[in-house]
Amino acid sequence: xxxxxxxxxxxxYGHPSLAFDHGKGSYLFTQDGTRYLDFAAGVAVNSLGHAxxxxxxxxxxxxxxxxxxxxxxxIPGQEKLAQRLCxxxxxxxxxxxxxxxxxxxxxxxxxxxxxxxxxxPERNRLITFSGALHGRTLATIAAGGKQQHLDGFxxxxxxxxxxxxGDLDLVRDTISPATAGIIVEPVQGEGGVNVxxxxxxxxxxxxxxxxxxxxxxxxxxxxxxxxxKLFAYQWAGIEPDIMALAxxxxxxxxxxxxLATSExxxxxxxxxxxxxxxxxxxxxxxxxxxxxxxxEDGFVEDVADMGLYALQKLAALKDGNxxxxxxxxxxxxxxxxxxKEPPAQIIKCLADEHVLSVPAAQNVLRxxxxxxxxxxxxxxxxxxxxxALSKYRKRRSS
Length: 398
Ligand SMILES: *Cc1c(COP(=O)(O)O)cnc(C)c1O
Description:
four-stranded mixed sheet; binds pyridoxal-5'-phosphate; 13 helices; 2 domains; 17 strands; alpha/beta; 37% helix; single chain; Aspartate Aminotransferase, domain 2; globular; 398 residues
């Protein structure tokens, strides 16, 4: 029994019983060799699946040379990865972190500092949107504004003005002389795979330009190819001033980054910020190897194609199961099935069919395949979903 089993861990994760021994590509294996199709991908982290040969090689080669030196010394892999990220994005500067929340903290600090550096320190508030997740640190739970994440952790960090997404007039009315910028998660992953419209994102860009404030994209989940472009902002044809990346950027190695224009990062001068582990040689070796694969010809285009293929299949699944399924949505391989009831038992039924998925808000089941998944693996997941839904339906009515 989960609750009664004695554990030395915090109870924050509920002590799941399913454990895996090894992985290969899109599959995970338990110790007794049972195979699972991993469409959870460590919550969009295992962007290239498990045990990708190029990543294993990069990590083991670096592991035998040098693990860590701290940022008191130059780390050539940082310069290389930063330069490459800048070449393929809007950015001119990069700061490396270890997690999404940290990259968001860096983004928030960069925005506040920008205005302070320009002589307007009173411009220090950020507009955020409900339904977004920005992390679990004190600043990022305040930015996210989800009550469950804030409960019991008072006093809440000041400086965030949260409104609903999608209403540009409301954003305009919320901008004040104290506003430093706007933080937006272009596809709200944890929030239920809510794809914000290109016109809304374009409108945010325009408002930021009009008011000389900064546009910050939280692409921790959407970045690094997940939506079928290298970065989700590219779908809207606009560019942010600051962007946080994490999850898929290390393919399973803890790595995150804050990217910014040289203008937006101008306040982050010597001594203003730091990280002990951020950008360490192991992370840089893996990050560069992940980027090698993602920049191969056709990689992100394949993600987009595969996403369209999956959406078609899911639409057909909905047609046959519209007593249970409310909506199908997503972008690239960030896919959501919205159910008419909480999907916990459906996720369990799907795991019984040996396919792993991830819950999200709004009764959504997320499918987050490795980005190099195949059509036949998507077919396999859809077939398992058919089985899981009919078993769930039987179990529920009995
Ligand atoms: C996961 C996530 C975060 C937090 O990342 P951590 O690595 O868990 O700190 C922040 N923003 C978004 C959009 C995420 O999906």
